[in-house]
Amino acid sequence: MNRLIIFILSIIAIDASAQINIWEGTDCNKKVKLTPYLVENHENSKAIIVCPGGSYFWHDSDTEGHEVAKWLQSNGIAAFVLDYRAAQVPAFIFHHRYLFRGNRYPDPQDDLRQALRLIRSISDKYGINPDSIGVMGFSAGGHLVMSAAELFDRADWPAFIVPVYPVVTMTEDCVHKRSRRGLLGDNNQHNKELCDSLSLERHVPEGCPPVFLVNCVDDPVVDYRNSVLLDSALTAKGVNHRYLQFQSGGHGFGASDTKGTEECRQWRSLFLQWLSELGDKNQSINTQAQP
């Protein structure tokens, strides 16, 4: 019954808060949708921009987008699902970006930056603390949200970053080749300079925002070593972070109650705990969980 009430409230929230075109009123003529899931009667709340995965070709908008946003909303956290520009299915099938630019880097990153700026600019309207806006991404979306700290100016950094089973490297043997092609395009997927600049393990900045990193060793899609590389880089830079490495759960479980395994679904409660403790400077969260 409680879940049914939460679901109905989520539908009402979507209707009451019209989807936003993040580029409306700017010089960019693109239409990129941002869907709010707001927390009623709440002031100065945290907010999270949710970036679904999909190899930078498409979006898993349900499991890794709207279901995640509803879960966050039910826990008192405002959420915004970002339909950032992706290459799309025809580009995957026909390789037409050899001839036409299509959607590619830096379009997704530009969309995330604009979404952060937009939400901050209207945070009063939504009862959101502009200094407490984080980003959460899954798979390729995990790469996108982590790149916010590595490619954006500090003024545009999110308050915290949550990459879940993320794509990380564009250069090492464990690279997820489909995501690399989706982001860079057919003609640039082996460009050494681009691949280096977008390999997250190589460019963790000093003072990086706190990171909550999650993946599973049995992931059949994105090699688990991607997260190991990122964890090592965050540790080397002394970044305040927590790495949850589960043995089972695979890929694509999002915030689902049924997908993945009971083990990996622990990430949700552990994340909420981590977020509540984030302001405690004496709390050590640079550890790897042993579920």
Q: What do these coordinates show?
A:
It is a single chain. The chain has helices at residues 2-16, 62-74, 89-94, 107-121, 123-126, 140-151, 177-184, 192-197, 225-236, 267-277, and strands at residues 20-21, 33-37, 45-51, 78-82, 128-138, 161-164, 211-216, 241-246, 288-289. The chain has 291 residues and is α/β, with parallel strands linked by helices. A nine-stranded mixed sheet has the order 1-2-4-3-5-6-7-8-9, sandwiched between helices. Helix 4 crosses helix 6. The two termini are 30 Å apart. 48% of the residues are buried. Mean pLDDT is 91; it is low at 1-17 and 281-291.
Q: Could you give a short description of this structure?
A:
The protein has helices at residues 2-16, 62-74, 89-94, 107-121, 123-126, 140-151, 177-184, 192-197, 225-236, 267-277; strands at 20-21, 33-37, 45-51, 78-82, 128-138, 161-164, 211-216, 241-246, 288-289. The protein has 291 residues and is an alpha/beta fold. Helix 4 packs across helix 6 (140-151).
